[in-house]
Design goal:
The protein is of the alpha/beta class. It folds into 2 domains: 254 residues, 3-Layer(aba) Sandwich (Aldehyde Dehydrogenase, Chain A, domain 1); 181 residues, Aldehyde Dehydrogenase, Chain A, domain 2. The strands form 4 sheets. A 7-stranded mixed β-sheet has the order 12-13-14-11-10-15-16, sandwiched between helices. It has a 6-stranded mixed β-sheet with strand order 7-6-5-8-9-17, sandwiched between helices. It has a 3-stranded antiparallel β-sheet with strand order 3-4-18, with no helix packed on it. 52% of the residues are buried.
């Protein structure tokens, strides 16, 4: 069995890799566990030096890695460059702050002295997606490793070259051997890895279905896990929103990374009084987007990552139309090679339609009309997901009131939802549990240990 790297812009198979056999997997896991014993003995300054060097390498070779990302999963080259830069920032952030985040905390008790310390768990198994093939990995690995854990990566099967490149970057940065390893394995082999005595914890970014499976296996083996799953983020546009500004942000929020992001704006919930004007402005902006070679900086519309994902998205669009949604633009494949899909706008979307109830992981904007702010918040919450949300209004007090009522891991007012190393990231409901980033993220894979001294 092989794992294939396929260029989604051309359909060309770039390279194929053999799947690791079970005995080889176990050997790698054992090596990572042995390496962790030595890695955790380093002090924070020593670990920080490695991550600062890793950040330097990412910046120096930014264009090389950006081209790799674009060739393997199809995103715009300019977006891939930004992704690599963001990875470098995350490495530097944890290199600078990990020691403070994990410093011993004195606690007043009946002891002569008592305190809480944060100790690494061991080897963290990272199961990562293809849509941000460098960022998703490093935003999990940097805090986990700065805490003293080592990492084994199982990347998505369509980005094997990115997976191997990440391991090579750690080697180039002179990290101790086996502190970060990539394993090219199938989804069927994941359970074996989680069950291994050498794995202490698991983190997954992926679909709700994958999250359920991983959580069940991790729970069976009593291992800590963090799940960052899908989203159907509401983009709530209130009646007093600045239409020109908000429409421009809405296009970015929906179509960056070709809409293939868990925190992309997906359900545009708009107060009825401005709906027609806003949708017209949004449509005009979308019509100006240019598709083409994702390596060309003039291109706005890249291919989706795989043709099967495009087919699934198209089925969701057709089912929504059959249930009464109105097609404003798009709704079809582009007549060209590669996994391109025409940017699509749906109006009159309602609960019960796939465009409302399901995650639309691609370039489709679904407009939902609300009577007023209270109705908009109720519609925003009428979902199985709870990852991110944004609210657009010129009345900040009204925006904060609405934000407090929205059920999500984060809510942005007059800004596109994004992940930031300084802020905790994660969801509720079917969007998962646990947090990445900030000091919350680095404390996920540690033993919060109490010491009491008479």
């Amino acid at each position: 069995m092989s794992i294939h790297s396929i260029n989604p812009a051309t359909g060309e198979t770039i390279h194929s890799f053999p799947v690791l056999q079970n005995h080889a997997i176990e050997s790698i896991l054992k090596s990572a566990a042995t390496a962790q014993f030595h890695w955790k003995a380093l002090d924070f300054n020593q670990r920080s030096a490695y991550f600062n060097k890793l950040a330097q390498i990412l910046r120096q070779s930014r264009d090389k890695y950006a081209h790799l990302i674009t060739e393997e999963m199809g995103k715009l080259l300019k977006e891939a460059r930004s992704e690599v830069e963001k990875c470098a920032l995350a490495c530097e952030y944890y290199a600078e702050h990990a020691a403070a985040f994990l410093a011993d905390e004195p606690i007043v008790s009946d002891a002569g002295r008592s305190y809480v310390s944060y100790q690494p768990l061991g080897v963290v198994f990272c199961i990562m997606p293809w849509n941000f093939p460098f960022w998703q990995v490093l935003r999990a690995a940097a805090p986990a490793m700065m805490a003293g854990n080592t990492v084994v990566l199982k990347h998505a099967s369509n980005v094997p070259r990115c997976s191997l490149a990440l391991e090579a970057i750690f080697r180039e940065a002179d990290f101790p051997e086996n502190t970060f390893r990539s394993v090219l394995i199938t989804s069927a082999q994941v359970e074996q890895v989680i069950a291994s005595e050498h794995i202490a914890a698991v983190t997954l970014t992926g679909s709700k279905t994958a999250g359920r499976k991983v959580a069940a296996v991790a729970g069976h083996h009593l291992k800590k896990c963090v799940l960052e799953l899908g989203g159907s983020d509401p983009f709530v546009i209130l009646a007093d929103a600045d239409i020109t500004f908000t429409a421009k942000q809405a296009v970015i929020g929906r179509f960056q990374n070709m809409g293939q992001s868990c925190i992309a704006a997906k359900r545009f919930i708009i107060v009825e009084t401005i709906a027609d004007e806003f949708i017209s402005s949004f449509k005009d902006l979308v019509s100006q987007l240019r598709y083409g070679d994702p390596k060309n900086d003039a291109t706005d519309i890249a291919p989706m990552a795989r043709t099967d994902l495009r087919a699934d998205l198209h089925k969701q669009v057709k089912r929504s139309l059959s249930m009464g949604a109105k097609l404003i633009a798009g709704g079809t494949f582009m007549q060209t090679q590669g996994a391109y899909y025409v940017p699509t706008i749906l109006d009159q979307v309602r609960p019960g339609m796939p465009a409302f109830d399901e995650e639309m992981f691609g370039p489709v904007a679904a407009f939902v009309r609300a009577r007023d702010v209270e109705d908009a918040v109720a519609l925003a919450n009428q979902t199985q997901f709870g990852l991110g949300a944004s609210i657009w209004t010129q009345n900040i007090t009204q925006g904060e009131t609405a934000a407090n009522e929205i059920q999500a891991g984060c809510t942005f007012i007059n800004g596109i939802v994004k992940s930031d190393p300084r802020l905790p990231f994660g969801g509720i409901k079917h969007s998962g549990f646990g947090r990445e980033l900030s000091y919350h993220g680095i404390r996920e894979f540690v033993n919060v240990k109490t010491t009491w001294i008479k």
